[in-house]
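User: Let's play a game. I give you a shape written as tokens, and you guess the letters that built it. Ready? Here's round one.
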């Protein structure tokens, strides 16, 4: 029996074979990309402090290899060329400027200068206007609410990092993601060979409601040794805001159903992390096939849901 096809919000979700890839690896790669992009737009920072002489110091503190700010320990070669401790390993202990052996010489003078400086957050161009002592800056930036988001699209190694509006354009144009207006949904997930499905990720769907964006994930994987399907919602924004929302998911047939109610997880948390924490609607394969009806040779699940704001 086909349950759908009449409601205007009904959406047939095409099966896709996107194989789940390792998300954590691509994340660190994209972080590096972002760092080098950002380094080029840095001059603005010093203008803001109104101190011209700092410009030169700032340049001195830029690692010639990775273009990031150097934090103690700062290293130098016997000729005085400096570089950061990460890059010292990357260049195999050989000075990238004069090719001499780096040895283990610290540049204490520059370390002292670094420690005395106050600098704006590196995400100033994304809206953060705070100023930090040099050594607290790094810590702040790791948790800065304005730091860019990773692309939430699972199943591809996407290195995009940006703010939410840019991310929405990216999802629409580069991943051809479906965007829906409204806070209720009714989706059908179809797979013709459910017994082969392990580590499959369906096309992401994004919902626009309450002036925010949410993405619905659906995928198959092995939970221990049991094949399961899992649906969960993530919020395109930070954790604090995500907690203001709730969502419910329902799946069923033949007068039986499973209901899940939860809090959307921020896309700050990786897709893999949310999946592994099992924070979503989990359907055992046998039950999923029962809900699919027919001869159990095809997965045909209808997932309905709702998003609301918790007062
Ligand atoms: Zn470096
Ligand atoms: Zn050198
Ligand atoms: Zn910041
Ligand atoms: Zn992407």
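Assistant: Ready! My guess for every position:
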């Amino acid at each position: 029996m086909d349950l759908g096809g009449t409601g205007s919000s009904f959406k047939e979700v095409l099966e896709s074979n996107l194989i789940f890839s390792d998300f954590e690896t691509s994340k660190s790669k994209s972080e590096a990309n972002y760092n080098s992009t950002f380094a080029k737009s840095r001059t603005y920072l010093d203008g803001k402090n109104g101190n011209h002489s700092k410009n030169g110091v700032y340049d001195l503190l830029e690692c010639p290899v990775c273009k990031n700010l150097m934090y103690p320990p700062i290293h130098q070669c016997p000729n005085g060329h400096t570089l950061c401790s990460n890059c010292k390993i990357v260049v195999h202990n050989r000075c990238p400027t004069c090719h001499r052996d780096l040895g283990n010489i610290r540049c204490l003078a520059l370390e002292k200068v670094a420690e005395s400086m106050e600098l704006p957050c590196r995400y100033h161009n994304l809206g953060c206007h705070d100023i930090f002592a040099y050594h607290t800056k790094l810590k702040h930036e790791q948790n800065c609410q304005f730091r860019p988001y990773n692309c939430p699209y699972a199943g591809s190694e996407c290195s995009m990092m940006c703010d939410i509006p840019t991310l929405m354009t990216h999802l629409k144009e580069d991943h051809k993601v479906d965007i829906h207006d409204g806070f209720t949904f009714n989706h059908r997930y179809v797979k013709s060979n459910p017994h082969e499905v392990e580590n499959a990720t369906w096309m992401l769907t994004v919902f626009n409601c309450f002036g925010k964006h949410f993405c619905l994930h659906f995928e198959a994987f092995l939970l221990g040794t049991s094949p399961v399907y899992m649906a969960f919602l993530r919020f395109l924004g930070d954790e604090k805001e995500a907690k203001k929302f709730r969502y419910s998911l329902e799946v069923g047939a033949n007068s039986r159903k499973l209901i899940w109610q939860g809090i959307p997880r921020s896309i700050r948390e990786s897709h893999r992390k949310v999946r592994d924490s099992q924070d979503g609607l989990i359907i055992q394969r046998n039950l999923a096939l029962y809900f699919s009806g027919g001869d159990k040779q095809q997965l045909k699940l209808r997932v309905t849901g709702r998003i609301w704001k918790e007062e």
